[in-house]
Amino acid sequence: MQGKTISRFYQSLRFRFGLLFNSLLFLCVSVIVYSLYKNAKTELDKSFSLQLTSSANNILEKTDIDPIAIPIPKKGEFFRIIYDNNARKTRIFDNLPNDVSDKKKWSMISVKKYPENGGIISVDLALSADHYYSGIQKLKRLLYIYLPIAFLVAFLGGYLLSWFFLRPLRRIVSNANRVDLEHITLLNEPNAKDEFYHLTDALNRMLMRIDEQAKQQTAFFTMASHELRTPISNMLTELQIFKHGSLDEDTKQLLDNQEQEVNRMKDLVNNFLWMSKIESGNIYSNTSEINLADLVLEFTEVLGKHLSVRNQRFKIDFQPLDGQFTFIADINQVEVIINNLISNAIKYGKHDSIISITISQNIKICFEVSNLTYHTIENPEDLKVQFLRDPFHKEGFGLGLWISDILSKKNNAKLTLNAFDKSFYAKIEFDKP
């Protein structure tokens, strides 16, 4: 079973929707700003051209040949006046700068007039283009610098605001994560009839369907388990009666094998019955004082006959030897736990190996069983999840350790699973009385 999924910020809806909407906004605004830039540049061109034309015509009007009259240049005005009488050209005035041909620095215009005494008077006016290009650069900065900055600010603002607006979704996720088959509770519906309300309503209807199916499934398992227990018990009794008769070795071996299979089926039915009780919440505890040492010795004696099949043996250690291994719990539930842990050690342990059982008394009363395995078990704690089995062991239904963990918690005990170097350890700790 996978643990909690770690999601990066760029995988969230906040990030993706923010990026999408702000990208579309950036594209639209960029088109609009670029259009404004082109229009503003066109208007600046017209304004500057109009200024050039107006200044050149003003100079031309004040210029005369007979007598010669020339206007005094204003600050920033540079012009050249030429008179052409069709015989020769006379430069009357010229204060144009030497780099006037540099179009990045200067803008130039030529105008002409035809005086009554004949000839042509032409004026070439040059004005500095610094202010013009400065205005153009400001527009470019608006387009290429300020607009991306505005996009980032809008994106971050939208990302932060979305955290506030997505609070109902986070509440839905939090409530949904607390739902399990044992405690199916409906989610609280938001007050606003928005998309979150419809999502919550759909999840609640789904939970109601799951709850109904879970109840039907639990009822089926309970009924089937009860119906199977009687014929299995009869089969087990008959096999045990036959074994006490005069039989040859082959027949005895056959009956032993059949008895083991019937016991295995009996354990499976019991697990299904416990599963139905757990999922329906019908677990009632009747506590009493339990001696862990006596209980374990009883189970090892009953299960000891299964060891010969795999050539295994028990090693039981009491720490201390004269310890008082008593605690208060439900005897039926503790028997299920101990039986599951020892049975798993036998079933999944290596052939020709020792199954070690340690009963200790310290701060708590502890029972620990360990066995050698053929493979190292990864994430042993995950085996406490319902229906989950180790990939290398396909036997069983993945219920024993799950049931043992649930019943341990019901009796204020803690079940811990560990695996080191092809060894598996199961430990349960009970509170002292």
Describe the protein in words.
The protein has nine helices and eleven strands. A five-stranded mixed beta sheet has the order 6-8-9-11-10. A four-stranded antiparallel beta sheet has the order 2-1-4-3. It has three domains: 13-164, no CATH class; 173-282, Helix Hairpins; 284-430, Heat Shock Protein 90 (2-Layer Sandwich), CATH 3.30.565. It has 433 residues and is an alpha+beta fold.
Keywords, please?
alpha+beta; Helix Hairpins; 3 domains; 5-stranded mixed beta sheet; 4-stranded antiparallel beta sheet; 11 strands
* Count of DSSP-assigned helices: 9
What's the total number of strands?
11
**Main sheet strand line-up:** 6-8-9-11-10
How many whole angstroms does the radius of gyration measure?
A: 47 Å
The SS-based structural class is alpha+beta
Write a brief caption for the model.
This protein has 433 residues and is α+β, with helices and mostly antiparallel strands. Helix content is 52%, strand content 18%.
Which helices and strands occur, and which strands form pairs?
Blueprint: H1 13-62, E1 78-84, E2 89-94, E3 106-113, E4 120-128, H2 130-165, H3 167-177, H4 195-243, H5 249-280, E5 287-291, H6 292-303, H7 307-310, E6 313-319, E7 326-330, H8 331-348, E8 354-361, E9 365-372, H9 400-410, E10 414-420, E11 423-430
Parallel strand pairs: 6-8
Antiparallel strand pairs: 1-2, 1-4, 3-4, 5-7, 8-9, 9-11, 10-11
Helix pairs in contact: 1-2, 4-5, 6-8, 8-9
